[in-house]
Specification:
10 helices; Alpha-Beta Plaits; elongated; alpha/beta; about 375 residues; 3 domains; FAD/NAD(P)-binding domain; binds iron/sulfur cluster; about 20% strand; 5-stranded parallel β-sheet
């Protein structure tokens, strides 16, 4: 929304495509941000300007079904569920927050950078609401980075107890008792909690897979990849390998609201730079295939980050050697489409030497080297 507003403010017509009926995404489910601002207030600022409802694609929480009795025990909740509980009366004398609850396996989300901030903020709010409640945070590593470092300091001052565990020896919860091996005390500690709060990994939006194919942008752990491998993009973290397509917020990684806003402003600004041009330049250096040499192995198509290569079936010419005739038939041949950005991955991996970069064929490069030496 912020990116759309930024581009619209620059005088360009903007279409906002949203799959849900209302704008706001996960912001609608949050009561209060870490900064103390009411989430609904922040959202209203955007929605009022559009006069419509839109929800953006973003990261979602992993549901830790069965973990520590989640889903069966009423006193086991996630941090996201604990947020709304903090606005009412919490019937608990001892609350234990567990950070870095694992996903159910490989590829099940990523540990969000903001998870420490979320956990420490929730612990602090619980303590502020009722100073007599015992609040424990079980963690592997606390990273309340940047301006949020103050939350950690405040939480400690207000009496939140932090216990560090090893990844190989996670806390166990059995018969209402949490057992944790504290690596700082070097001892086993047992706590009888009234409420257990789990901080879970963040999952990419389900649509990312489909959008990745549509816009030809590769994914990493389900999130869109920035064009990091291109040195000129170091200062343009919202650019992708597909020029003209920008990414921001939790499309890139599970981001906090203020990070998402900063990234969306950057994306809007990058888009405006493009829109302000009268004409667009396309990369002159793209890949070309020598169809005669191409064996149709498909290695290049697998390597291409923007899926610009297709394998097509081409007729093989009939060749006559004196009296013998070699029947043609069909063979697979790589075809490079318009989306090529000239990254050269395909040419480097082609086992037949059939793929090369225009103006940078092997023999041209060798000729230049010969001349130089
Ligand atoms: S261009 Fe090279 S890598 Fe691609 S299909 Fe042909 S032989 Fe294989
Ligand atoms: S150079 Fe090859 S791998 Fe890179 S974008 Fe073009 S076709 Fe794809």
């Amino acid at each position: 929304m912020n990116a759309a507003l930024g581009i619209a403010d620059a005088g360009y017509e903007v279409y906002l495509v949203e799959k849900e009926l209302e704008l706001g995404g996960g912001l609608r489910e949050i009561q209060e941000l870490q900064s103390g601002e009411k989430a609904a207030g922040v959202l209203a600022e955007f929605v009022d300007k559009f006069g419509a409802c839109v929800i953006a694609t973003e990261a979602r929480d992993f549901v830790p079904e069965g973990y520590h009795g989640y889903g069966k025990e009423k006193n086991v909740v996630t941090v996201s569920e604990f947020g709304p509980m903090l606005t009412g009366k919490i019937d608990a004398n001892t609350i234990v927050l567990i950070q870095d609850v694992p996903g159910s396996g490989e590829g099940e989300g990523v540990s969000a950078k903001y998870s420490s901030i979320e956990v420490v903020d929730s612990a602090l709010k619980a303590k502020e609401k009722n100073p007599d409640v015992n609040v424990f945070v079980l963690y592997q590593d606390i990273k309340t980075y940047g301006k949020w470092e103050v939350l950690y300091k405040e939480a400690r001052e207000k009496g939140v107890i932090f216990l560090r565990y090893d990844k190989e020896k996670p806390p166990e919860y059995e018969d209402g008792i949490i057992s944790i091996y504290d690596v700082i005390f070097n001892d086993e500690i047992q706590i009888k909690p009234d409420l257990v709060v789990l901080s879970t990994p963040a999952m990419p939006a389900e649509e990312n897979e489909r959008l990745s194919k549509m816009f030809m942008i590769p994914l990493k752990n389900g999130f869109f990849m920035e064009a990091q491998e291109r040195p000129k993009m170091v200062l343009t973290p919202v650019d992708t390998v597909n020029e003209g397509v920008f990414i921001c917020g939790s499309a890139v990684y599970p981001a906090m609201i203020d990070e998402s806003l900063a990234m969306s402003s950057a994306a809007a600004s990058r888009a405006c730079v493009l829109l302000a041009k009268d004409s667009l330049e396309t990369p002159a250096v793209t890949s070309v295939v020598d169809e005669q040499t191409c064996s149709g192995c498909g290695v290049c198509a697998d390597m291409c980050p923007v899926e610009a290569i297709e394998l097509t079936e081409e007729p093989v010419p009939v060749i006559t050697f004196g009296v013998a005739t070699v029947v043609g038939g069909v063979k697979k041949v790589a075809k490079v489409g318009d989306g090529c950005i000239g990254c050269e991955s395909c040419a480097s991996y082609c086992p037949s030497g059939a793929m090369s970069l225009r103006y940078f064929k092997d023999r041209q490069v060798y000729a230049q080297l010969d001349f130089a030496v």
